[in-house]
Amino acid sequence: MFAMLVTGSGLRAMSLKTPGASPWTPTCGRTQRMKENELEPAELRRAVAAGRATAAETGLQVDDAVVIHNSDRVALRLVPCDVLVRVAPPGQLADSEFEVEVARRLADVDAPVAELDPRVEPRVYVRDDFAVSLWTYYAPVGPEITPAAYADVLERHHAALRQVDLDAPHFTDRVAAALREVTDRERSPELSDSDRSFLSDTLGGLSSTISGDKAGDQLLHGEAHPGNLLSTRRGPLLVDLATCCRGPIEWDLAHAPEEVGEHYAGADHDLIRRCRALNWAMFSAWRWRQEDQMPDRGHWRVEGLHRVRAALDRCGA
Fold this sequence. Notes:
By secondary structure, this protein is α+β, with helices and mostly antiparallel strands. Helices cover 42% and strands 18% of the residues. It is built from 10 helices and 11 strands. Helix 5 (171-183) packs antiparallel against helix 6 (193-211), helix 6 (193-211) runs antiparallel to helix 9 (269-287) and helix 7 (249-255) packs across helix 9 (269-287). The longest helix has 19 residues, at 193-211.
């Protein structure tokens, strides 16, 4: 993996090793859309400058910045103050404020999540039209997170979320957004009629089936895939809290590797399989958008549909 070191002379690539990298899983909501939209160099420099200036104004010492993640929301590690700065465009101000509020609430109940930097006021700062938030930086460490440890983190996170009163969308809101992409031919003109019908039926049918009984719904992480779980000296910690939503705990488990659900007490494995099939259907729907920019999109359009059908077969559908 490569990051960018930002100094007075510009951007320079540097290698970063991520110990314990987990297997790839589909990301079908906001996280996936972020991954498709890397900022151009000029805009990236503006975002970095906004993050650096914000941190410096709070009294933190900033000499250099390392771009850890470049998308429409940039993640920076500032040194020597060692703070993680997230910089989002104006259109994501509400998302940034929601994420900070989720983090503040979860810090009060000792949830296994990344925390805001304790040296500064816990809020979103606006600088040069960017929404800037400052977080604790966690250096990645090994060993790889085991399925049992992964399940333990989710169980503790779900328990903490049950202690929090927070207004959050239902996961089916994201399904509805994916369904709109499929049903609108102008948004997905290259999707064949048969595949359009297949994805539409799958998204609508599974969403209705899974959400039919909301008695067990609770607050969730929303996209608890391996890319959002860090191995740190404090133990595994979940990040990207802006995806918080309501639904069954099996929705979070469907984003994790399959072995994780086997270690989660009381999980409904049939429901996990249905959620995983729905997850793949959402992933496939995003790939067929006309403006989709995912690398190797042609491959994933075909492979995504294959994965949906395979997941449905495992559900007995």
